[in-house]
Design a protein that fits this description.
- Helix content is about 50%, strand content about 25%.
- The chain is flat, with a radius of gyration of 49 Å.
- The protein is α+β, with helices and mostly antiparallel strands.
- The chain folds into five domains: about 200 residues, PAS domain (Beta-Lactamase, 2-Layer Sandwich), CATH 3.30.450.20; about 100 residues, PAS domain (Beta-Lactamase, 2-Layer Sandwich); about 110 residues, PAS domain (Beta-Lactamase), CATH 3.30.450; about 100 residues; about 150 residues, 2-Layer Sandwich (Heat Shock Protein 90), CATH 3.30.565.10.
- Its EC number is 2.7.13.3.
- It catalyses: ATP + protein L-histidine = ADP + protein N-phospho-L-histidine.
- Keywords: ATP-binding, Kinase, Membrane, Nucleotide-binding, Phosphoprotein, Transferase, Transmembrane, Transmembrane helix, Two-component regulatory system.
């Protein structure tokens, strides 16, 4: 073969050079031709991109024009031409970058409103009578719908597109709402200078529906470029867009052809020259191959060491993060684990065989079905997943793990391999459980606390409030979150409170102030508020906690005592003035005056002393006794519910005695404060309509445990099933509670009957018991304060003797009367009457 004439002919350098020239010429010219085609396609693609961009912008212009004119037309149709037309038009221009002018046209075609007016002096111009603008206007009237007209030589200069929306009032045409877009504005938004563009020539046209002729927007003559016309589908007529290359660019594929030809010549000459040097070249190639082999071997060894080091680092990282990985070859059903997987599953890597079944047998029985279904769904839908489940280990230990998995597919979308990572999150689950229990305990304690408790983040937004806070504010939990809590503040206090809070947060000091809450019904609650910052483990601020206690009654008492003091001083001043007016008479009785002055001064000192003592006494009773009593009762209740831990029977018994005694003492304090207000004539009532029977039912339900405990029966006889009364619901409920509590207290058997009637616009309520009764001679002492008929150390019933005195004062304050009928040993009948309507407003 090597000695054949053909082989020897082929081996000649000239032949080799010629063959090389032919091959290089064919290859280079083929590449040049492909480059020529690529350039042609890129130019077409660029033209198509420009066309699509302008089409999209034009469609966007139509959409925005329709929305703007429809909005303006709707305003005029509903409310007439708005007085603030300029502000509405300005807002439309700000919202839509395509618009230059907003106009209103009346039913006769006259432009009546234009914004902006500067450089647009077209008010009074009649578009219907205009030769150029009438066709678009008439088309809009005929369509009775949105229409875009153009091209229009604008009176204010330039070429524009006018979008009009007919204004129809009661079905009759009453004018247009219109927006004008200058073509220059439209092209500027596309970064196109349609008049000075060097690469492309642009043209936009609209086909006249009547004549069928194209009306061009620009001066460019496009009659010879119909093949570049692109129709644009629009609901307002047929439009066409032209994008024509301005110059015929030189195709660089020609240069590639020339360069390829030169390369073919140079390459063939070089091959011809080198053909005789094959031996030298073979030697050089052999040397280079050996050098490359040595370099490749060095690279292989270096890479191998780096891979081993990376694998070692990966194993260390997985061990630190308690993170293992697994890989499943789906075709071979072969499962492989990383070393950390054996530690997580507590298996011996030397003796444990990693199989699909062994893997699933290690999963907790209650979680196996869930894991299997999720994996199958992930493979079928080609979706990665992340789940948490439990492991049931050989030593009966339970572990929580978090798994992430992704499946890989071949070109035919057949799954070939699944790869997953598993992390031991047992410690994290335990921590989450502890935190959850702490959160539940915190919520339980705050929900039952007798004061308002709230949490704020670092910027002052609420993240939690308890039930007492919601009761004070009259809001629900969702309304109070974020900055919504500010709506509970009294309008007169809001700015002050927010300024104080901001200063406290900025200066990092404790907050202590007084707020007023006003609920949706207008009820005002005075609160003493303290706020303390919350710090995390790094001593960084992450929020605040606040406590607010109700001081409304203390504030009211202070106001009443101040009024009492002022009245007393006024009385003394009046007496002094009277003495001054009687100067002549007093001169005759100088000795008596001196004596009386000394006595008056003594009485004044006594009155002031008594006033100060009463002020101090009431303030102390209100703030220093009632507030801690509320806390004692509230936290005793929390202990009895065993939120803080279990109690034995003796502890429950003693805590129940503490709670009962606290409630009794709190009732005593409340009664003393009420009788003090009554004596001073400062008892305030809140009059509003309410359902009397609902209040009665609520009071009876509250006392049912006491009734059942004594084996009594409560019956009601009500003449009407719908009784509404305008009075003070809380005070009437207080009267009912006192009368029914007394009936229960002094009855050991029998029935307590409640009768309710309406007689001559009066609500008549009778509380009749079968208790011990009252002697006739004691009836006149019954409504006197601090009087107990069963007195002395041997009395068998608890009480302060204030309840009936308070009831009588409350009933009379509300415009009613109360009386009693009783016989010793036969029971008592307490009857009170109240007006249905508020007598003070008649």
């Amino acid at each position: 073969m090597r000695n054949s004439p053909f082989y020897l002919f082929i081996k000649k350098p000239v032949v080799i050079g010629l063959i090389s020239f032919i091959i290089l010429l064919v290859v280079s010219q083929y590449i040049a031709y492909q480059k020529y085609l690529i350039n042609e396609n890129e130019q077409k693609k660029e033209i198509n991109n420009q066309v699509n961009l302008i089409k999209d912008k034009l469609q966007s212009l139509v959409m925005h024009s329709y929305s703007a004119t429809k909005t303006l037309g709707y305003i005029v149709e509903r409310n007439g031409i708005p007085a603030d037309f300029d502000s509405i038009a300005s807002e439309l221009l700000n919202l839509n970058k395509y618009f230059d002018v907003v106009e209103l046209v009346d039913g006769d075609g006259f432009i009546t409103h234009v914004y902006p007016l500067k450089d647009n002096q077209v008010i009074g111009f009649n578009i219907i009578k205009s030769t150029e603008a009438s066709s678009g206007a008439l088309a809009t009237i005929k369509r009775k719908d949105f229409f875009i007209a153009g091209p229009v030589n604008l009176k204010q200069g330039g070429i524009g597109i006018v979008s009009r929306q007919p204004i129809l009032i009661d079905g009759d045409f009453s004018g247009f709402s219109a927006v004008v877009t200058k073509l220059s504005t439209f092209f500027n938004d596309l970064n196109i200078d349609a008049f000075n563009e060097n690469r492309f020539v642009y043209q936009l046209s609209r086909v006249n529906v009547e004549t069928g002729q194209e009306e061009f927007f620009l001066e460019n003559d496009m009659s010879s470029f119909k093949e570049f016309a692109v129709p644009i589908e629009m609901s307002v007529g047929e439009w066409k867009l032209y994008v024509v290359p301005a110059l015929s660019e030189f195709n660089t594929g020609v240069w590639f052809s020339i360069f390829g030809f030169l390369i073919a010549i140079a390459g063939s000459l070089g091959i011809w020259f080198l053909a005789g040097q094959s031996e030298r070249l073979n030697k050089l190639v052999s040397i280079k191959l050996k050098e490359q082999e040595s370099e490749l071997k060095l690279i292989y060894e270096t890479t191998k060491k780096r891979i081993k080091k990376s694998e070692s680092n990966l194993r260390k990282a997985q061990k630190i993060a308690q993170l293992g990985s697994w890989e499943l070859d789906i075709e071979k059903q072969k499962l492989s684990w990383s070393k950390e997987m054996y530690r997580i599953f507590e298996k011996d890597s030397k003796h444990f065989e990693v199989t699909h079944n062994a893997f699933y047998n290690s999963i907790h029985p209650e979680d196996r079905d869930m894991v299997s279904k999720i994996y199958k769904y992930s493979v079928e839908k080609n979706k990665p997943y992340q789940i948490t489940y439990r492991l049931s280990l050989d030593n009966e230990q339970i572990k929580y793990v978090e798994e992430q998995c992704e499946t890989f597919y071949n070109d035919n979308q057949v799954p070939v391999k699944s790869f997953g990572i598993i992390q031991d999150i047992t410690d994290r689950k335990k921590t989450e459980g502890i935190l959850k229990n702490r959160e539940l305990l915190y919520r339980s304690l705050t929900s039952n606390a007798p004061v308002a408790i709230f949490n704020m983040n670092a910027v002052g937004d609420y993240t939690y409030v308890n039930e007492e806070w919601l009761k004070y504010s009259g809001m629900n939990f969702i309304e109070a979150m974020g900055s919504g809590w500010q709506n509970a503040l009294h309008p007169e206090d809001r700015e002050r409170v927010l300024d104080e809070l901001q200063e406290s947060i900025l200066t990092n000091i404790k907050y202590n102030s007084e707020w007023r809450f006003q609920d949706k019904n207008g009820k005002i609650t005075n609160l003493a508020v303290k706020i303390t910052k919350l710090l995390d483990a790094n001593n960084d601020l992450y929020g605040h906690i606040g406590i607010a206690s109700d001081i409304t009654e203390r504030i009211d008492n202070e106001k009443e005592l101040l009024n009492y003091k002022n009245n007393l001083e006024n009385l003394v001043n009046l007496r002094t003035q009277e003495l001054s007016d009687s100067k002549d008479a007093l001169l005759n009785l100088l000795e008596d005056i001196n004596f009386q002055s000394i006595e008056l001064e003594k009485e004044k000192v006594k009155a002031q002393s008594a006033d100060l003592m009463k002020s101090a006494f009431l303030a102390t009773m209100s703030h220093e006794l009632r507030t801690p009593m509320n806390s004692i009762i509230g936290f005793t209740g929390i202990l009895l519910k065993e939120f803080a831990g279990p109690l034995n029977e003796e502890q429950k018994k003693q805590l129940s005695m503490v709670k009962t005694s606290g409630q009794h003492l709190l009732g005593l304090i409340n009664d003393v404060l009420d009788i003090s207000k009554i004596e001073a004539g400062k008892l305030n009532v809140s009059i509003y309509p309410f359902n009397y029977l609902t209040t009665l039912e609520k009071t009876i339900d509250f006392l049912l445990p006491q009734v059942s405990k004594k084996g009594l029966i409560i019956k009601t006889e009500i003449s009407s099933m719908d009784i509404s009364i305008t009075s003070d619901e809380r005070r009437i409920e207080q009267v009912l509670l006192n009368l029914l509590s007394n009936a229960i207290k002094f009855s050991n058997k029998g029935t307590i009957k409640i009768k309710v009637d309406i007689i001559d616009d009066l609500l008549v309520t009778q509380v009749i018991d079968q208790g011990i009764g009252i002697e006739q001679r004691d009836l006149n002492k019954l409504f006197m304060p601090f009087i107990q008929l069963d007195g002395g150390l041997s009395r068998t019933h608890e009480g302060t003797g204030l309840g009936l005195a308070i009831c009588k004062s409350l009933i009379e304050k509300l415009g009613g009367t109360i009386q009693v009928q009783s016989k010793r040993g036969e029971g008592s009948n307490f009857t009170f009457k109240l007006p249905i309507e508020d007598v003070n407003n008649k």
